[in-house]
From TrEMBL, chain A:
GO terms for molecular function: transmembrane transporter activity. It is a multi-pass membrane protein. It is found in: Cell membrane. PANTHER family: AMINO ACID PERMEASE, AMINO ACID TRANSPORTER-RELATED. This is Amino acid permease. InterPro entries: AA/rel_permease1, APC_superfamily. It comes from Mangrovihabitans endophyticus.
Automatic annotation (TrEMBL), chain B:
This is Golgi phosphoprotein 3 GPP34. It comes from the Bacteria. It comes from Mangrovihabitans endophyticus. It is a peripheral membrane protein. Pfam families: GPP34.
């Protein structure tokens, strides 16, 4: 299909994105500053491990190899933005449903965790600037309301605004890193790169943090159908973005940890997300701290909106397919309103629980939620990678052996290794005793959700074969059991029952 | 008012039937609906046919003067150009060249179809340009229905016919389909109840040609895809 309109004047194709635009879109759901200032410091404090740069590079390497097969498969399926579409096609629909539920859980963890990070940063900031002590959850609720409103109204942050935010936060990471690097008392440390630590006690926790840091890079596949040249521009944008972000993370973490010297873990615990900004401010003055805070907040808000939209469209696609209640598949004025509302309600409930119980928003919500989401996405990527092998074993679809077999096999093995290390080190990741707290209940929740999803898939196979057939097709599902036109006609004759099967 | 408007004009009115004349739909879903409506107008006038996702220009089309109406003439002209270009790249010139309807809906949705329809409506006086200043933005020109009786008419016609079980024209059935496909059913038809829905399905199957049904489903899928790439 992509080739048919090659002669059309560009004015007719204003939508088509090139590699730079796609790269920016990917980077904006990754939110680099949130990672460098928030995830890295909290990770240092909680795990007490410093080989962050090595973990970032290891995860990036696995992801680039994964992306080869992932992008190849994306060209042959529909609903390319959703992992469960790949799993449904590669490993079977029941596992696809299971992974879709895991995805909803993981993305919700990310999105809702951000409210904790935002609240925790805003509270001291507001006191500094205005001298008023307002609890963190008030800020969380204000931003929650904004996200909920925009989601219901189908307003996504415009690409230009996202581009400005992403470029400025990336520039800030680069400039601050240089400032710290060239400050007078800077001492090099090789610790951030000591790869050996990854395999030692608790090393898997660092890999989980690495996976958390890259969550969002999978979003590039969404644009496969929209890009100028799907064979090249989306894969290229994805490889370059992963590579660039890996270097950015590795260098910024290295500089940040080196500058703190032996005090890195202790300072990360005391200063939290301020560590990176404080190190720069030590040389150039207090404005660096303020500017850092502002961009940290905007970066978080942009990521929240991005993840809210990801969750809403996941829920919408599942509603359209009839896997989730059909209510979620309805649109009002072009927006998936019920799906959006459901996510907002969930967010509100979680903010409420944390506010009432007095749990720490930065560690218990932002870090625990964020890394849980990260491990969830890591497991999904691993499943997806295995699905690529399964998909291409049935037919080559004209892809090279490297793309359909070589890269996916290597990536799957690497990802299984990383996932194994991450899951076996959950206690270190959460900073709790093994078998207690989140290290105990998170795996249980994940297994229950996965098994329930698989069971639901199997139930659908027997009770609703039409729905079962459409799993993974998203808006192209032939049943589209939503009160839409296709669904209305599905009972009758004519093309409605055969269309749209979409064998792409 | 008794003479029905063109299909895309009808749909535009349904989408803008609000007290302030603004659209219920965002630019993109509105554009998908209007693009599909313009294509439907060409199909109903036999300039185009649609089968298995491909649009075919009528083989004798070049012998006739183009469509008299500038909006459909614009779309049709582009399609003829594209068809000729594709034909030029092929050795076998006798086979009909199909244009992907999905691609065309995608291409028309980003403001182009809306521009064409709004130009047509302002020329006929059914819609007027209005300057709007916002609290936070500079003033801009928007196109709004000339009056609420004009904008309320198409939806009321479909609604009444459905309620009274009266036969609908193919154009109104396509309009109803596009209303459902773009997510306007709640606003325009007040949601469709069981009996009316059954009647609509029955009428659609009896009267609406397959290409038009396929087109509406393509539009619905396109709106769904739009949500997936937000």
């Amino acid at each position: 299909m992509p080739s048919t309109l090659s002669t059309l004047p560009n004015s007719l194709a204003p939508d088509r994105m090139g590699a730079p635009g796609i790269g920016l879109a990917i980077a904006s759901s990754v939110a680099p500053l949130t990672v460098v200032a928030g995830v890295v410091t909290t990770g240092l404090a909680v795990t007490g491990l410093t080989a962050v740069s090595a973990a970032m590079i290891a995860v990036a390497a696995a992801l680039v190899i994964f992306a080869v097969g992932y992008m190849a498969m994306a060209r042959h399926i529909t609903n390319t933005g959703a992992f469960y579409a790949y799993v449904s096609k590669g490993l079977g629909r029941p596992l696809g449903v299971g992974s879709s539920w895991i995805a909803l859980l993981a993305y919700n963890c990310f999105q809702i965790a951000s409210y904790g990070g935002l609240g925790a940063i805003s509270e001291p900031l507001f006191q500094d600037w205005f001298g008023v002590d307002v609890p963190w959850w008030v800020f969380a609720l204000v931003v929650w309301a904004i996200v909920a409103f925009l989601g219901r109204r189908d307003v996504s942050v415009s690409e230009k605004v996202l581009a400005v935010l992403v470029i400025s936060e990336t520039a800030l990471v680069v400039v601050y890193s240089l400032i710290i690097l060239f400050s007078s008392d800077y001492g090099f440390s090789a610790k951030p790169f000591s790869a050996g630590q990854l395999f030692g006690a608790g090393g898997g926790a660092l890999l989980a943090i690495g996976a958390t840091s890259f969550a969002g890079v999978e979003q590039g596949a969404v644009y496969i159908e929209e890009s100028k040249d799907p064979l090249r521009s989306v894969p290229r944008a994805t490889y370059y973005t992963i590579g660039f972000i890996a270097v950015l993370y590795a260098v910024a973490s290295w500089v940040q940890i080196s500058a703190a010297g032996d005090q890195a873990v202790a300072r990360a615990g005391e200063e939290g997300p301020d560590l990176f900004f404080n190190e720069a401010a030590a040389t150039v003055g207090g404005w660096a701290l303020d500017l850092g805070h502002i961009l940290f907040l905007t970066s978080l808000i942009a990521a929240m909106i991005a993840f809210h939209n990801i969750i809403a469209r996941y829920t919408y696609a599942l509603g359209r397919e009839g896997v989730l209640p059909k209510l979620f598949g309805q649109t009002v004025g072009g927006a998936p309103r019920a799906a959006s509302t459901a996510q907002s309600v969930l967010g509100l409930v979680v903010i409420g629980i944390y506010a009432v119980t007095g749990l720490d928003p930065l560690v218990e919500l932002f870090f625990v939620g964020g890394t849980t989401g990260g491990v969830g996405v890591l497991l999904l990527i691993t499943l997806t990678s295995a699905s690529v092998i399964g998909f291409f074993l049935r037919a080559a679809h004209g892809e090279t052996a490297w793309r359909r077999l070589g890269a996916p096999v290597i990536a799957t093995l690497l990802l299984i290794g990383i996932s194994y290390l991450a899951v076996t080190n959950l206690a270190t990741l959460y900073g709790v005793d093994p078998g207690t707290g989140p290290a105990l209940y998170m795996p249980i929740v994940a297994v229950v959700v996965l098994v329930a999803g698989i069971a639901w898939g199997l139930i659908l196979r027997h009770t609703r074969p039409d729905v079962y057939q459409g799993i993974g097709l998203g808006p192209r599902s032939a049943v589209a059991t939503t009160g839409g036109f296709a669904a209305m006609m599905a009972g009758g004759s004519g093309p409605a029952t055969e269309q749209p099967q979409g064998n792409r | 008012m008794t003479a029905p408007l063109a299909l895309a004009d009808d749909l535009w009115m349904v989408a803008h039937d609000r007290p302030n004349g603004a659209s219920f739909l965002g630019i993109k879903p509105l554009g998908i609906g209007l693009g599909a409506a313009l294509i439907a107008e060409l199909i109903m006038a036999n300039w185009l046919n649609l089968a298995d996702g491909a649009l075919y220009v009528h083989p004798q089309a070049s012998r006739y003067p183009p469509p008299a109406d500038p909006a459909t003439a614009d779309v049709f002209g582009r399609m003829q150009q594209e068809e000729a270009a594709q034909r030029g790249r092929r050795r076998d010139v006798t086979d009909p060249v199909g244009l992907s309807v999905e691609e065309w809906i995608q291409h028309l949705h980003n403001g182009h179809a809306q521009q064409l329809v709004e130009r047509r409506l302002t020329m006929s006086g059914l819609a007027v340009e209005e300057s709007r200043g916002g609290l936070f933005r500079s003033s801009r020109t928007v196109v709004v229905p000339q009056s609420s009786s004009v904008s309320g008419w198409p939806a009321a016609r479909v609604r009444d016919n459905l309620r009274e079980g009266q036969q609908l024209s193919e154009q109104d059935l396509t309009l109803a389909g596009l209303i459902v496909a773009t997510g306007l059913a709640k606003e325009a038809l007040g949601g469709i109840g069981g009996r009316q829905r059954e009647f609509l399905v029955h009428q659609t199957q009896a009267i609406m040609r397959l290409p038009l049904r396929e087109l509406v489903i393509c539009a619905e899928t396109a709106v769904g895809r739009l949500i997936m790439i937000r």
